[in-house]
Amino acid sequence: MKNKKRRSRTLIYIVLTVLAIIWILPIIWIVLTSFRAEGGMFVDYFIPHHFTLDNYKTLFTNSTYPFGRWFMNTLVVAVVSAVLSTFITVVMAYSLSRLKFHWRGRFLQIALILNMFPGFMSMIAIYYILKAIGLTQSLLALILVYVAGAALGFYVQKGFFDTIPISLDESAMLDGATKWDIFRTITLPLSKPIIVYTTLMAFTGPWMDFIFARVIMGDNIQNYTVAIGLYTMMTRESANSLFMAFAAGSVLIAVPITILFIVLQRFFVEGVTSGAVKG
Amino acid sequence: MAEIKLEHIKKTYPNTDIPAVADYNLEIHDKEFMVFVGPSGSGKSTVLRMIAGLEDITDGIFSIDGKIMNDVAPKDREIAMVFQNYALYPHMSVFDNIAYGLKLRKLPKKEINTRVHEAAAVLGIEQYLERKPADLSGGQRQRVAMGRAIVRDAKILLMDEPLSNLDAKLRVQMRAEIAKIHQRMGGTTIYVTHDQTEAMTLADRIVIIDNGDIQQVGTPSELYNQPKNTFVAGFIGSPSMNLLTVTYHDGIIENNSGFSVKLPEGIAKQLTNGGYDDKQIVFGIRPEDLHLDPIAVETYIGGKFNTTVEVSELLGADAMLYTKVGETEVVVRSKGSDFVDPGTQIEVAANLSKAHYFDAETTNRII
Amino acid sequence: MQKQGLTVLKALQVGDWRMKLSAVIMGSSQLLHGQVLKGIWFLAVEISFFTWFLMRGIKSLNYLLTLGTHKQGFVFDKKLGINILQQGDNSMLLLLFGIATILVVSIFLYQYWVNLKSARTLLEFDLNHSKVPNLKEDLAKLLDSKLHILLMSIPMIGVLAFTILPLIYMISIAFTNYDHNHLPPKNLFTWVGFENFGNVLSGDVAGTFFPLLGWTLVWAVMATATSFLFGVLLAMLINAKGIKGKKVYRTLFILTMAVPQFITLLIMNNLLNDSGMVNTMLMNWHLISHPIPFLTDGTLAKVTVIVVNMWIGIPATMLVTTGILQNLSQDQVEAAEIDGANKFQIFRDLTFPQILFVMAPSLIQQFIGNINNFNVIYLLTSGGPMNSNYYNAGDTDLLVTWLYKLTIDSADYNLASVIGILIFTLSAIFSLFAYKRVNKMSNLG
Where is the ABC transmembrane type-1 domain positioned along the sequence (chain C) (predicted)? Predict the structure, then answer.
């Protein structure tokens, strides 16, 4: 009996280790590639023959592809969007979860329907609206679009608010609190994990989005975010020679985001599971 | 002063036809301890929440000291409430929980401190003031909830089944504490429960509710001794009153299970005059008014009948005998020493002066 | 005393002259009751709206109907004696402004309604001899009973401008002939009714639409199912009794979720290329003699996409399932063991059904999300390999990616809009169907 258990356990360890390797492999590969000195896009060996930091240097010295500038652009957009988006999402979620007004049900239905349209169907229209205001190809436009999108992305946040017992609100009401007092002193303090999750999502979004950013930025390379910047690097004729630089850029983006995720792992997990389990 | 008046209060939830509360009329006097009791879903919590302002009143007038309060916000009604699940703020310490309402009203820090410590002392939770609710036991949390309510010194105190989440022993303990607190602080209190023992022990007056309708209002002894209908009769008192559906004819009540009892003349006359000859009535007699001992059997000759014991419960000083006359179940309470084996036939005498008679159709009291 | 609930219509009928005046001159009732700020606001709204409407609004609506009549072209200018390029009507802008006009009119009507409601409330105050709230009291309400107005107004403006307006615009385009042959400002486009829908559903483009629709559904089912099934298995492996290092394994897999998707997918694209690492390794080890066309063969590409998607989707499912597994009561498992069930039976009859039950709503959302899963397909294969039978689409294109190509590459905006509407219809049908099912399930549970 014991041997059987040990055998099955060993088997599981083997399977898990193999799977872990398969999953981590692509990531290790891109890190190695970022340090590779020779070759182009395709080589037939795994570990580089020569290691170098040149690829990283290229990123910051190449004037056609100003990675450093892209990085700053994305950072600014991410921070501002994160702050504004969190505020808007939290506020919308609270109103729809806790406040009574007679068009609440209808609004939730409409929001559901609006969310069923493919995201960038309205992209072209937004582009022209921005053109009419004169904001195209600017980072401000990007921020506006991301933040406006946050208004209808309240579901996870709302789901969490829904789980806070109403009797807490009622007790506070009898104690003399206005709805704003309740929001400030009771609901928000209890929602720290989910708020962190919302901010995390809002912050990482701009680093990874290349659909919206591409349409809005057009060919204004100076204003690119890292996402479209790297994508452009990869898909032009320069792709082969700049491949390792592209790898270096990928690592530079992936590392901070990954660290962020690991440090805030608890909140990320809570957000993903609460949203999923409550549906 | 806090006199509460409920006139023709009605509550219908949206998208439903049948009102949860149809026509509720009640006056609660200043400093009275009023208990709403009834089975689950009877509407008692609904009325309480309407008084608190947590539910809208569909129709009718609700006033405190003559002022109409239908549309006043909860926070302006000067009402404190203890919730069934305590509703403690999990992220605040016990001290902050109790102090919350006082802080909102911007009372000076010193005064808040004094009042919180006072309330905590009354409830014996002073040593927990720095802890968070998650670190407390159920009974302790309950006390914190009560502390939060009494610290406000509000005009009216509402309690929504505060003891139902506690185990039996704690419940008995807390019952006494609540009675003591009411004696000490003395405000108007409305207490909701489904447990008739709590109602009987705590109340100045009781309101029994079923299906949104008030069945009877009165002191505990009024409800116990003169129940207005079979619902009240069966609800109040533990174990419940025996309610037997019988046919009355010529001074005798009997059913087709073999139960037959001769009624005293005075009662027989009243029933005949009431037109109940050959009609069905409900005969009510409490287990403690059914006697086994020979002296009682001799005294209450008229109410004698034979019955067979099915289950015998020894409770210590008392015993409960679950017996059957044919198919009719009768519960008899006797001394512990009268423990009888199942299957035995016994002779039981009913103290008919303590019996109740109800109309079988309307369920209302006849005599 | 019952609440004196006057409807606005009733208030107009029974109200005094101030109420009736409010119907014509907005803000009058408020001003006459001393609510100066409110009154001025409504009055200002009315005046500015009508001014704008008479000067611009009507023209806009007219243009909306025609979408422009003057084509850009050369016109002989008598004064200068030469042909000058005269700007034509820009159909696209006309459509945009036309819709914006309709929205503005709607907003005005809404404000008019609010004005009437406010006047009605003032009438009620008069009838009940209650005091009219002053500005301070009204503002205080914003923090309490009207908090939702304070909190939601700014986000709503954003929603209106950046979600609703664009959406209406795009939906309208589906009913025009705005494609690469009719690009403003050089050309005009105009309304064509349901012609585009006919084209997509039964015309030339149908030959692309239906195969892509089929593949989209197959993809969505496979992607959701494989991620779910294997995610559950992985979670069970890690969660098994006696396995040490649970947290380490979980963190490793979460790590892969942290790396931005587009980087991962571009890496995969590179690795699976005909000259990529996987093929060259396999050839170096003499396992194959020709590179396997992971991404360039129609059928194989479809398989590849599903497999790569598993790499992306399984960690997330694993995470959620772990949460559910940890909350599953051990008592049931023990009772089943006593009853004689083996590990596999326990999984099949107890664990898996319960996981499925809890995750059902999320699975449905994932399915609908996968219908619109742009990133995985586009970054991995660009929707390729190109299929000459299709109009501007490849073998692995989903409806979404095709929409993108129609917009960016071939500028067939009208077709793109039609596809978008059809995708929406698809999602809506599935959502409705799924939620009805889930509700039934949850009533049984």
Answer: 213-434
Are B252 and B285 members of one domain?
A: yes
Q: Are residues B95 and B187 in the same domain?
A: yes
Q: If you measure CA to CA, which chain C residue comes closest to A145?
A: C162
CA–CA dist C96, C103 (Å, integer): 11
B64 strand-pairing partners: B4, B67
Asked if A151 lies within 8 A of C417 by C-beta distance, the reply is: no
Domain boundaries, chain C: 8-193, 199-444
Kindly list the residues from chain C whose CB atom is less than 8 angstroms away from the CB atom of residue A104. 148
Output b/e per residue, C241-265; b: 16+ Cβ within 10 A: eeeeeeeebbebbbbbbbbbebbbb
Is A188's Cβ below 8 Å from some Cβ in C? no
Question: B80 contacts in A (CB within 8 Å)?
Answer: 174
> Cβ separation of B68 and C3 shorter than 8 Å?
no
- With beta carbons under 8 A apart, name residues in chain C contacting A126: 162, 166
Domains in chain A, CATH or no CATH each: 59-275 (1.10.3720.10)
Phi and psi at residue C129, to the nearest 5°: 55, 35
Tell me, yes or no, whether B77 lies in a domain. yes
CB of A113 less than 8 A from some CB of C: yes
**pLDDT tens, C394-406?**
888 888 888 888 8
Give the number of other CB atoms < 10 A from CB of residue A194.
Answer: 24
Mean pLDDT to the nearest integer, C249-256: 84
Residues B265 and B143 in one domain: no
Please tell me the distance in Å from C78's CA to the nearest CA on chain A: 33
Domain total in chain B: 2
> Residue A14: how many CB atoms within 10 A of its CB?
10
Residue B364 lies in a domain: no
Together in a domain, B230 and B324: no
In terms of domains, do B52 and B105 share one?
A: yes
Which residues does chain B have with pLDDT short of 70? none
CA C355, C360, C361, C363 torsion: positive or negative? positive
> What are B162-175's pLDDT values in tens digits?
998 888 898 999 99
**CATH label of the domain that carries residue B336:** 2.40.50.140
Pair B355, B275 in one domain: yes
According to CATH, the topology of domain C199-444 is MetI-like fold (1.10.3720)
Smallest CA–CA distance, residue B18 to chain A, in Å, is 22
CA C332 to chain centre: 41
Dump pLDDT digits (tens) for C90-107. 777 788 888 888 888 888
> How many whole angstroms separate alpha carbon A146 and alpha carbon A206?
8
| Cβ contacts from A onto B, under 8 A | 57
Query: Is residue B149 within 8 Å of residue B188, measured between CB atoms?
Result: no
Q: In angstroms, what separates the C-alpha of A134 from chain C's closest C-alpha? A: 14
Q: Do B104 and A175 touch (CB under 8 A)?
A: yes
Residue of A nearest to B85 (CA): A167
What percent of the residues of chain A are helix, what percent strand, and what percent coil, each to the nearest 5?
Answer: 80, 0, 20
Range of the domain at B317: 240-359
> What's the pTM?
0.80
ipTM of the complex: 0.80
How far CA A232 is from CA of A60, A228, B20, in Å, comes to: 16, 6, 66
Distance from the C377 Cα atom to the nearest Cα atom in chain A, whole angstroms: 13
Cβ atoms of B244 and B307 within 8 Å: the answer is no
Do B61 and C1 make contact, defined as CB atoms within 8 angstroms?
yes
Closest CA in chain B for residue C141: B73
Of B234, B266, B282, the position where a domain reaches its end is: B234
User: Same domain for B217 and B244?
Assistant: no
Residues C1, B71: C-beta atoms closer than 8 Å: no
Mark yes or no for CB contact C163/A148 under 8 Å.
yes
